[in-house]
């Protein structure tokens, strides 16, 4: 580190993978190691009438060709959790 360089960097894997693929594909490598698993959520008030519509919209998207293509373009050979 005294030379102003780093050997490793730990960050949110999907975000880091996207940044590396976009800006540093020839000089930085993302290794296939995870230190923890992070879950993402959408929070609604209890009993929200939006929940059924939101559930269907999310399922519709994650089952679509667009979702699989976007995952591949963003993360490469992404594996499902």
Written account of the structure:
This protein is mostly helical and 81 residues long. 42% of the residues lie in helices and 0% in strands. It has a domain at 13-32 and 41-75. It has helices spanning 13-23, 51-62, 65-75.
At a glance:
This protein is mainly alpha-helical.
Task: Offer a few descriptive terms.
81 residues; 42% helix; mainly alpha
Secondary-structure map with pairings?
Blueprint: H1 13-23, H2 51-62, H3 65-75
Instruction: Report the helical percentage.
Output: 40-55%
**Alpha-carbon distance between the two ends:** 34 Å
Global shape: elongated
Gyration radius (Cα, Å) is 17 Å
Total number of strands? 0
The SS-based structural class is: mainly alpha
- Overall pLDDT score: 83
Biggest sheet overview: none
The helix count comes to: 3
